[in-house]
Amino acid sequence: MKKTYLLTILIIASFFCEAQEKYKVTYAQLQEYQGLYQYLNNTTLKIAASPKDTILYAIINESKYYFIPVKKDLFLDMTKDSIQFLRNKQSKITAYRTNKGTFDLLDSRVEFPKEMWYPRLINSNGYKYSYQQPTNDKDGLNTGNLDNTGLNKSLLNEMMQKTVDGKHPNVHSILIVKDGKLVFEEYFYEHHKNKLHELRSATKSFISALTGIAIDKGFIKSKNETALSFFPEYSFANNSNAKKRITIENLLTNQSGLDCDVSNPKSVGNETTMNNSDDWIKFTLDLPMSDSTGGKGMYCSGNPIVLGRIIEKATKQTLPEFAKQNLFNPLGIKNYVWNFKPDRSSVETFCQVNLTSRDMAKFGLLYLDKGSWNGKQIISKDWVNQSLKKYSIVQGVDYGYLWWNKYLDANGIRYYTYAAQGNGGQKIYLFQEQNMVIVITGGNYNSPSPSDELIKKYILPAFNK
Predict the structure, then answer these.
(1) Fewer Cβ atoms within 10 A, N terminus or C terminus of the chain?
(2) Helix, strand, coil proportions of the chain in percent (round to 5)?
(3) pTM for the full model?
(4) Hey, which residues does 413 pair with through a beta bridge?
């Protein structure tokens, strides 16, 4: 992981150096391009110049995508497509043009707080970490200190120091729940405990939980119900007896057999194509079969999207409403955003849930405690046990019901974990033997995240025997 991360940094650095040898740009020059702009599908994005590294970024929701300068007003994005900024007769920026169209500058007076560029704002005396016990906010999450937890204060201090020094970039939060208590809670950049964070594909594990609840409550008869039977209003392309056999369980284990595999560039079920389609359900279930149901594990975001709509049809509620009544309210989760609309309007939000890091920790603790929360069974113990078993292998990793069955090696000792995880470094890790939940959020979108390295280097070694 470390070697891959360093290699990526070197590639990006060399790319910037090569580009800037031809065209050098200053921070003041980059500030000319800042502002709020139009974007695809009637959405907007922000463009900001970083005072930390003198790089121009496009900001979509929480994601930052760098631009590489080529010459005046011309940049390349991360896919090497051209970004041409346009000026008026007064030489003021008015828009930018890409191969997707021309997008107007809506407001050039957007403020970008300094905190968004630095892990912590540091005074002239430098930074020295001092541990503080998490506060008890009476939100249902008990707190405690590090004493008698087995965690190594010295290692955690080193982790904090190096993260603030920029050695582990774009980490937004690190939380540790040990023996049922939140004992470590730190935030970086402009993030804090009340700020919502996008979960990206970690949302899939929440859909798994809601599927189990819908079955437990009798809305769905069983995991063996066929997917197509919930959609009599559709006439699907590439229909076959094999497709008609796809079950809810096949969707949960990413073994639907549909030609949808993020690791296969030739797969017709490309996630970007789905995101830009008018109906993600029909797009997914229209796909041809590339394998038998229950066969090869293939990472396909369309599978949990279809599950979400099945839950809606079975319960006659929207997925967020069903989640609110049966998962969020029981956990005391009140601050969240979930816009589940599987169509083109969600092209940049991916139908994902947005939660605070503390509420992510609650979800992890719920699964660690076999579906029980404060003495109440929210999800059946049987469903939790089923969810965390191995059914398939996806991208070389054992896979349960939209949960990853992973291991991390720390100084030669192997630790097994169950993980809900998403692009950018969103992690909810369950360590059953250590009775511990670790939550990490980050902004390393479409690039290697240091989150696993943090866990392996600074948290798990405390338990080596």
Answers:
(1) C
(2) 30, 25, 45
(3) 0.93
(4) 410
Strands 404-410 and 397-399, sheet pairing: antiparallel
Phi and psi, residue 131, nearest 5°: -65, 135
- pLDDT digits 0-9 by tens, 106-121: 999 999 999 999 999 9
Residues 335 and 347 in one domain: yes
Residues 394, 398, 403, CA angle at the centre, nearest 5°?
85
425 contacts 449 by C-beta, under 8 angstroms: yes
Read off the pLDDT band of 5 (50, 70, 90): very low
How far is the C-alpha of 218 from the C-alpha of 265, rounded, in Å?
A: 39
The answer to whether the beta carbons of residues 411 and 31 sit under 8 Å apart is no
Cβ(48)–Cβ(36) below 8 Å: no
Distances (CA, A) of 213 to 202, 205, 219, 251: 18, 13, 9, 16
Domain of 209, CATH number, reads: 3.40.710.10
DSSP class of residue 226?
B
Position 323, amino acid = A
Residue (of 433, 428, 435) closest to 415 by Cα position: 433
Comparing C-alpha atoms, which of 357, 302, 355 is closest to residue 327?
355
Q: What's the number of domains the chain is made of?
A: 3
Amino acid at 403: W
Cα separation, 60 vs 81, whole angstroms: 17
State the alpha helices, DSSP H only, in 90-187.
153-164
C-alpha distances out from residue 362 to 335, 373, 435, Å: 13, 9, 14
Domain of 97, CATH number, reads 2.40.128
CA 459 centroid distance within chain: 21
